[in-house]
Design goal:
Blueprint lengths: L1 E4 L2 E4 L6 E4 H20 L9 E4 L5 E4 L2 H7 L5 H16 L4 H20 L4 H22 L1 E2 L5 H12 L8 H14 L1 E4 L2 E4 L4 E7 L7 E3 L2 E3 L11 E10 L19 H24 L4 E4 L5 H9 L3 E3 L4 H11 L3 E2 L11 E11 L2 E7 L7 E7 L2 H24 L1 E4 L3 H15 L5 H12 L1 H9 L4 H13 L5 E4 L4 E4 H4 L2 E3 H19 L3 E4 L8 H5 L18
Helix pairs in contact: 1-3, 1-4, 2-3, 3-4, 3-17, 4-13, 4-17, 5-12, 5-13, 5-17, 6-7, 6-11, 7-11, 8-9, 12-13, 12-15, 14-15
Amino acid sequence: MAGQMAGQPIFIMREGSQRSKGREAQSNNIMAAKAVAEAVRTTLGPKGMDKMLVDGMGDVVITNDGATILREMDIEHPAAKMIVEVAKTQDSEVGDGTTTAAVVAGELLKKAEELIEMDVHPTLIASGYRMATEKAAEILDDIAKSVTVDDRELLINIAGTAMTGKGAESSKDILSKIAVSAVSSIVDKGDDGNTVEMDNIKVEKKTGARMEESELIEGMIIDKERVHTNMPKKIENAKIALINSAIELKETEVDAEISITSPDQLQSFLDQEEKMLKDLVDKVVNSGANVVFCQKGIDDMAQHFLAKAGIFAIRRVKKSDMEKLARATGASLITNFDEIADSDLGSAKLVDERKIGGDNMTFVTGCDNPKAVSILLRGGTEHVLDNIERGLEDALRVVGVAIEDEKLVAGGGSPEVEVALRLQEYAATLSGREQLAVKAFAEALEVVPRTLAENAGLDPIDMLMELRSHHEKGVKTAGLNVYTGEVIDMWKEGVVEPLRVKTQAINAAAESAVMILRIDDIIASTSAPAMPPEAMGGGMGGGMGGMGGMPPGMM
């Protein structure tokens, strides 16, 4: 980019910078964003297909989850990255609806492009889209129904909807029940509503059994074995001490030298060490604890004393697991051995070591009122397990969101059709060009039922017409049954999802679409040119290849 002044070119941007403006920039961005949305579109809905992603290292991920696909794809284009952001936000906020959000964003841009062709200014489209987003939120709120923690059936349906099409179909019922039980037991009921802290659910995966053998542990699973073989394998009515300092002798902080002159002195020195360790262990024993989880190391000698006392001990437990154990068993974390009191100990009916899939794991079960639980997932292969885990995580998050918000909408494309219809009515009340943008927004939302139909091999136009006519007759929860190709009442069918999944998806999609629309100039600077290969090989003989990227004439 050069300006002309007194016949001499002035360089404002580094040579090799690229710049596209106006229409060209917009269509570039829209094209890139649409391409990303297209990439995940075929995975939408129960009949969606999966993607196989192979990274540079040859690792394989097989998934149906929009966020995972977009995260694993190496996306370069800056506008396309914004669509990836939409999916990521959706994933971190609600855990499900990532594909929906990305597809709607792509469709909003496609409709905007048509309007730009008709000479509607992008700023007008943006403000129309904003108006439509606000109206859509109102409409969704209007058609939402309420749910409480005690509606177990409804919550199981929500979990089921989130897992549908995620490769966990065959054992969906079992996993849905596990998800609901897990979330229900960790809900913190406060004055200002319920909060669900997902970190309190731990998922352990182990290959080598059928999916149906997955189970919920009302307590904790720790992927460790006891430190000494002489320790008991199982302890009933466990009194649990959680110690986060090492059960070994402290090294001296200062560089002290101890000079030992006779063998007797050495012996008494060693005896002294042993006695100190024995005292440490005695403090634990005297507190009444019969199970010890230690966050740091346990000295060999101390292991021997603990085993002699019949105590089950595990060392180097992760900090996060220690915190979950504290929540599950009601124990306090202990740092100072002198202060171990009975009140610091947690309790569980059973602590035992079991062999699962060839590895020893420790189970802490039968906690009175566990505020942290574990789920043991089983599956035939690593890939199957990863896939189930992603489905289960979506289910857990969605049930959590439903319990927090206590609001639900029907699924199967029904909220989108309803919102689209009501937005069309709203558009008719507007004057000015925003009306066009609101109409475009309404049409864009219909991409969801249309894609559901396409992925199921049904005729999208016929299906949309039928859906619309049901909704015009006032059946607000009519959606598409992709298995039979009929339009049915999704609420009765039990296909439901949390309100936040929908509002968040539409908001995120609209915001990113507006952001991309408002860009009319793309300036891409290049980095300094690299050293040409001959300059690398032949010392400096091959021409000074990369000196700050100066034009050849200036050297």
